[in-house]
Amino acid sequence: MRLMNCILLALFCLSASAFAEPKSIEVISHSIVTDTIEDAVSPSGLVRTKNGDYLVTFANAGDVDVGCTAFLCRSTDGGKSWSAPERVWKPSKDTEGVACNLHNLPDGNILLVIERITYKSNKPRKETRSFNHFIGRYSTLELQLCTDADGKEFKHLCFLDNVNNALCANSSIVVEFPNGDWVLPGYATSHTRPKPNATDGSGYWRSKDKGKSWGKFEVAFDAYTKKEDKYIVFTENAFFVKADGTIVAYARQDSSSYSECYAYRIESKDNGESWSKPEETNLVINYFSFLKHSDGSTLLLAGDRKSVPSTRHVTIFSSADGESFQALGKVYCSRGKPGGYPFNAATGGCQRFVPMEEPNRYLIVFYSFDKTLPGFFQTYIDSNIVEVK
């Protein structure tokens, strides 16, 4: 009996250590991607090329507003410094804004998503000063594929399905489901009242042939969800797969007051053929993504709306079981307050991270504010190398 107890104790310790939750992060270094492009914001794409370079894409207007231009910069020294923009995507008409996302695909290639949003007006919101400016806009999403080692040559692949001429957006990194399907997270909104069996909402596009083609938009979060007799509007989302094959998705919602817009969570045990009812979590987060850590835990990068002392500070969370997440630490703002804190909440709206070659290290890109910078929003693109301990 004593021998059996010792064996059971040893097995318990082994299983616990296999999923031991990281306790903290250390910022190894930080470097500015750009503070010379006026109002640089929204670094929505970050990848590592086959030859070890890093590519980041960002824009010069929030919410891909009218006139928004997208840029691509490169790091050839492991994220320690960044080039001037080597590629630029400009609007094709005066009522358009453009943004670009980058994805490391499971096969090692790079996917580029070019999003072009068309507005009713040719004036940006900083001139109209009205949120009605965003009503009625719609978008096209073009996919391009890069198979070379240095991430320089992208070729047209296809246009993604657009739901009801809606505003469609890619919101997080490509994830592989247990059955081998790839999914591109995103959302589609046609600016109409939610209804049962809606074809727009928060969900994804699926590829069943390793990225050669992409199917119609699939809704994951039930758009006919209410809280206190008010419909919940789900937008940005992200997915990860638990050790038992269960797919977990989180979605942002903005149907409550700013600090009470808790993210919702769903699960699927049949590769996305069906999803559980959305359940509210204890996280109030913006533009998030998940990565698997070396010990089997799940890392979450997000803008934390309840962060103190600085609201929306970019934060890394961790979960050992894929159920509950604990904050590990925050990024360091190169042009921030003493200690690397952001000056205000003009951060956390868009950020990305990728694993580095060095064990347990991640490269993070984000934007932040500095009142000494020129421009309307006075933002710049920053980067950190962090180690999860």
What does this structure look like?
The chain is mostly beta strands and 389 residues long. It has one domain: 6 Propeller (Neuraminidase). 5% of the residues lie in helices and 42% in strands. It is built from 2 helices and 27 strands. Strands 10, 11, 12, 13 and 14 form a 5-stranded antiparallel sheet that branches. The protein has a 4-stranded antiparallel sheet with strand order 1-27-26-25, with no helix packed on it. A 4-stranded antiparallel sheet has the order 2-3-4-5, with no helix packed on it. Strand 8 and strand 9 form a beta hairpin. The chain is globular, with a radius of gyration of 21 Å. The N terminus is likely disordered.
List the helices and strands and how they pair.
Elements: H1 2-18, E1 25-34, E2 41-48, E3 54-59, E4 70-75, E5 87-89, E6 96-104, E7 110-118, H2 125-128, E8 138-146, E9 155-159, E10 167-170, E11 175-176, E12 182-189, E13 201-207, E14 218-219, E15 226-227, E16 230-231, E17 234-241, E18 247-253, E19 264-268, E20 279-280, E21 285-292, E22 298-304, E23 313-319, E24 326-330, E25 351-355, E26 361-369, E27 379-388
Antiparallel strand pairs: 1-27, 2-3, 3-4, 4-5, 6-7, 7-8, 8-9, 10-12, 11-12, 12-13, 13-14, 15-16, 17-18, 18-19, 19-20, 21-22, 22-23, 23-24, 25-26, 26-27
